[in-house]
Each structure stands twice: as C-alpha cells, then as structure tokens.
Here is the input.
Amino acid sequence: MFWTLEFLPGKLNLTGTLPFLIQAIIFITDIEVEPITLIIMLVSVASVMRGEGIVSKLKVDNIRLNVSIALIFTSGFKLVVNMEWLKGRVTALGFSGFKLIS
Here is the structure.
C-alpha cells in the first residue's frame, strides 16, 4: 500500500486545505465579507498545511474519537437546519470576537 493507517489523519488534514482555499477565493470574489474575516480564513489554510505533521504523530484512536464527535455534532446541526427547526435570516458580513476565532 502507498500509505499506512498512521499517516491517514495527516493526509486527511492536508486534503482539507484545497476546499478551504477555494472557499476563501469564492468569498473574496463573490460575497461581501469583512476583511478581517477573509484574513482569518487565509491564515487557517496556512495553519492546516503546517498542522499535517503534528496530526500524523497523534494516536489513531484519539483522532477517531475526536472525528466521530465532530461528525455527530455536524450531523445534528445539519438536521436542525434541514428540518427548519431554527429559522432566521443571515445578514452579517463577518464575525467578531469569539465567533471569529472559534
């Protein structure tokens, strides 16, 4: 096999870089967003690229647990949005404070 299971988390982390970069480019060109939000998005791309080596050294079981928890939360949010249990209109152009860095 070209890669082993131990390197999978780092490769998954690195493969997330391109979608983040595309999302940032779309926001820059098509959507009106505050400049600080765009800067934070671009910095996050650089941190993902740097974090590959760190993540690949973590224990696989810990990564599986964290990814599983994240997927459960994500599926819960998607369910709430798709069932329209939360209604509202998005008018913000950017984030500030804790929402910006979280």
Q: What stands out?
A: The chain has one domain: 5-101. The chain has five helices and no strands. Residues 5-101 form one domain. The two ends are 37 Å apart (CA to CA).
